[in-house]
Amino acid sequence: MIHQNDLLDLWTAGGPNRCMTWEQLLAVAATGAVVGLLGGVFGKGGSAVATPLLSLVGIPPIAAVASPLPATIPSTLSASYAYWRERLIDRQVVVWSAAIGVPATAAGAYATRWIDGSVLVTVTELIVVGLGLRFLLRPGDPHEVALVPGAYRIRLALVAGTVGVLSGLLANSGGFLLAPLFVIVLRLSIKQSFASSLAVAAILAVPGAIVHAALGHIDWAVVAVFAATSIPLAYLGARLALRTQTVHLERAYGAGLTLLGSALLLASL
Questions:
Q1: Model pTM score
Q2: What letter does residue 36 receive in the DSSP assignment?
Q3: Do residues 10 and 221 lie in contact, with contact meaning Cβ atoms separated by under 8 Å?
Q4: Over the stretch 160-176, which tens digit does the pLDDT of each residue have?
Q5: Residue 179: closest CA among 35, 38, 43, 40
Q6: Crossing angle (nearest 10°) for helices 190-214 and 246-268
Q7: Could you give the CA distance from residue 7 to residue 22 in angstroms, rounded to a whole number?
């Protein structure tokens, strides 16, 4: 009989973390649920939030960075489906972002061979704080009308290339950067940006996940537990966003991210 404090052997194919305690198992499941729900609501894969939380419960730094990425693929597709049913996904944005972002993501992921995992966790925490402040202080206008700016494809290429490199480097699907950049640079409406960023994030997560798996950074036990809760909650979060005033959700999310990122940064000092 396995007791609560026994180690639950969750063997991985060369992953950095070969076993989890029951407490870690539950923490990873809870993290997946929270990240899935928030990701579905705000059009993000959620790795930027998952990484510091997994690191906090004892998952090794490089595994905390890379392991949420494979689980991001089905969870973002789940949320994206809810937005697709409402015809909010911009196909041109998705196609161009994928075409440019995929090779850029692979290049960024490969570059992690020369960067320490602890550094990546710290960078992710800083990004969480910055993202939280952006949502808190400058939430999007839910009544904003989508406009097509000048040099649209150049803007789109710059967004996709930049986010692709950063998402590969930080093992993120890119949604946490895509959504605000789609609003600011491409001038999509808030919900269009959420819908399109989810679809692109699912695609950008693929090359990053492949490269990190080849480098032995992924703990597949963490992936399995994380995905089990994040997938259904991502769909639920997207449905919730479609029925809620986005400006209020953005402010609440921004406050939560700012507090979370600040607390994790202070804890790591």
A1: 0.72
A2: H
A3: yes
A4: 888 888 777 766 666 66
A5: 43
A6: 30
A7: 7
Question: Is the Cβ–Cβ distance between 147 and 155 less than 8 Å?
Answer: no
Judged against a pLDDT cut of 90, whether residue 23 lies above it is answered with no
In Å, how far are 53, 99, 259 from 121, measured between CA atoms? 10, 28, 16
Question: From CA 184, how far away is CA 139, in angstroms rounded?
Answer: 11
Distance, CA of 28 to CA of 37 (rounded, Å)? 14
Question: Do residues 169 and 48 make contact, with C-beta atoms less than 8 angstroms apart?
Answer: no
Phi and psi at 19, nearest 5°, equal: -155, 155
**Alpha carbons 44 and 247: distance in angstroms, whole number:** 16
Q: What is the pLDDT of residue 1?
A: 41
Residue 4 reports pLDDT greater than 80: no
- Does residue 7 register a pLDDT over 70? no
CB-based contacts of 176, cutoff 8 Å, min separation 6: 44, 45, 46, 47, 48, 127, 131
